[in-house]
Amino acid sequence: MEPFWKNKPLAAMSEAEWESLCDGCGKCCLAKLEDEDTGEIHWTSVACRLFDAGTCRCSDYGNRLGRVPDCVRLTPENVPQISWLPATCAYRLLAEGKDLYWWHPLVSGRPETVHEAGISVRGRVSALENELSEPEEYFAHLLEEEP
């Protein structure tokens, strides 16, 4: 029998199936800066104030949308429109008709493979957003490319 993500569209997934698609990389929790003229996205190593850099998970996932006004709740409807989702994101991959990578926990059977493969931001967060007081401070944390 094939795994659910190979034969079930995103919109038909149960809440548990949907949530299991998150590989725990933490990339979506990094602050991104958008060039107003070009729309280009620039990644930073600054994470959301609720981000636990050790586990690469939200420290208050159930309440994140109320506590962080600009937190984006992914849905089957909005995933195709979110240009900043990482190229390795399971939600994006499946929306584009692609398969999951070998290191995804659903494929490997182990949550640590995303970190072992160097895909996650574990060890690469330089600051949390609540540690910065001025918007200009984000520029010191710009990354050359998508993490």
From TrEMBL:
Residues in the signal sequence: none
Record InterPro entries: Puta_zinc/iron-chelating_dom, UCP006173
Pfam families referenced in this protein's UniProt entry, alphabetically: CxxCxxCC
Top-level lineage group: Bacteria
NCBIfam families: PRK05170.1-5, PRK05170.2-5
HAMAP family, sorted: UPF0260 (MF_00676)
UniProt xrefs under PANTHER family: UPF0260 PROTEIN YCGN
The family this protein is said to belong to: Belongs to the UPF0260 family.
Name of the molecule in the record: UPF0260 protein NYR54_13295
Organism: Chelativorans petroleitrophicus
